[in-house]
Amino acid sequence: MMESMKDLDPTAKQWLSKVLDTPFKASKHAHSHQDEVYRIETQHCGYYLKISATLKSERDNLMKLETILNVPKVIDLYEGEENDYLLITELPGKNLAELIEE
Known about the structure:
A hairpin with a 4-residue loop joins strand 2 (36-41) and strand 3. The protein has a five-stranded antiparallel beta sheet with strand order 1-2-3-5-4, sandwiched between helices. It is of the alpha+beta class. 26% of the residues lie in helices and 28% in strands. The chain has three helices and five strands, in the order αβββαββα.
């Protein structure tokens, strides 16, 4: 498991920089328990980068649902040698784990 974004696969870093095409900050998402998740913040938008062995089916499911439900929009999927990297938009509001903490 990665400790920080600096441990991210170099080709995945290049992909992320190219897809975002703007400076960004990244921080590990504290409420993710199964996969490695980072909150990506640019000057204008928020995203989440999910890292796991396989994320193709999650990408496909989100893309099917985005026409009928308010789910994160898929920006891109990068298939690395060991992991997939799924970049999705951030939805406004708080997630359930954050609301429970309050």
